[in-house]
Design goal:
By secondary structure, the protein is an alpha+beta fold. It has 7 helices and 14 strands. The N and C termini lie far apart (83 Å). InterPro entries: LysM, LysM_dom_sf.
């Protein structure tokens, strides 16, 4: 079935998929018999689809130019540009500008490309895949890089000597430490994704940094721009997702430990670096701000305690980290510094 000039992109997709109506929130691109989806970073990969690595902005632009040769693909890309407020609907946008802006969205990690499986239409035999010529040398697979930087969320100072565990696309594992600029870079990786995790065995609050958020930096820095050397920021041996638990009336260390499926000793060891009952009482006064005592003279937790916080560590695992993108992780030190501390 041929597409008419007045057909909308959704009608065009319907016409080129055998007349089967298929509505989807995804942005679709067609290349011959193959269909591709442009997904937002947080959207899961649909079943049967394969991620397509586009690398940096230049490589993404080259691939998108191929798609833009089709009028209806170009219309889809234009819709994306206006959806992300990169252009105004009443202003014309050239094909090159559309391709460049969508490529920027991909390089920043806001969008990613996935290839859909070939549809099975009743009565139609799918095209046979060409068998590789055994006599011809196999094409060399492009090697990619993992690029990650860890910085302080407030000062943007780099975090050095922070050890992370990497699970590479081939399934192998290795450890890596951030350098003095907070960078980890691993080269010569096959296409795929990397799982990045941080160990918290033996961690204490004093040595732990709290994960705040992850982002994507522009693929390339402006040529000739010199980066100002920053001083080393906060330091820490461990990185974790920290839960800040505000104590309430009637709670005990035992009940809090049970809520988070841990033990009182593990809770005390992480927060205060000790399991000694007398030292724990001192930390409840100084760090938690307890003021009430029971009949035996021990501090009890109350909603009036200031700051009244106990921290619970949770493992940090990022299971989908694309290659050839400059990832930045922001962290901070907890608890926040207190300007004034009065003793009882």
């Amino acid at each position: 079935m041929r597409r008419g000039r007045g057909m909308l992109p959704s009608m065009a997709n319907e016409a080129r998929t055998g007349g089967v109506a298929f509505r989807s929130k995804y942005h679709r691109l067609l290349d011959g018999d193959h269909e591709y989806l442009l997904l937002e970073f947080h959207e899961p990969l649909p079943s049967g689809h394969q991620p397509v690595a586009l690398g940096d902005t230049w490589l993404a632009e080259r691939r998108l130019r191929d798609f833009a040769q089709d009028h209806f693909n170009l219309r889809t890309l234009r819709e994306l540009v206006h959806t992300y407020a990169l252009g105004r609907s009443f202003e014309p946008v050239t094909q090159d500008e559309v391709v460049r802006q969508v490529a920027t969205l991909i390089s920043r990690g806001q969008l990613r490309l996935a290839r859909a499986p070939l549809p099975m239409v009743p009565g139609v035999v799918p095209p046979l895949e060409k068998k590789p010529d055994s006599s011809a040398p196999a094409p060399e697979e492009e090697k990619l890089r993992l690029m990650l930087q860890v910085v302080d969320d407030v000062t943007e100072d780099p975090i050095a000597d922070l050890e992370l565990r990497l699970t590479l696309p081939d399934g192998s594992e290795q450890k890596a430490k951030t350098d003095e600029d907070g960078h980890i870079e691993v080269s010569n990786l096959p296409q795929g994704r990397v799982k990045v995790a941080a160990a918290i065995e033996g961690a204490t609050l004093k040595e732990t940094l709290a994960f705040v958020k992850a982002g994507i930096l522009p693929a390339m820095q402006p040529v000739g721009k010199t980066r100002r050397r920053r001083k080393k920021g906060v330091s820490g041996r461990f990185l974790a997702r920290l839960v800040s638990h505000k104590v309430a009336d009637g709670e005990t260390l035992e009940s809090i430990a049970e809520t988070y499926e841990t033990t009182v000793d593990a809770l005390a060891q992480f927060n205060w670096g000790t399991t000694d009952p007398e030292k724990i009482q001192s930390h409840l006064l100084i760090d938690v701000g307890c003021t009430l005592k029971d009949d035996s003279g021990k501090f009890v937790l109350s909603s009036e305690d200031d700051p009244g916080l106990i921290y619970i560590p949770r493992p940090l695992e990022m299971d989908w980290v694309p290659l050839e993108q400059r990832h930045i992780w922001r962290v901070k030190k907890l608890p926040e510094p207190r300007l004034y501390l009065f003793s009882a």
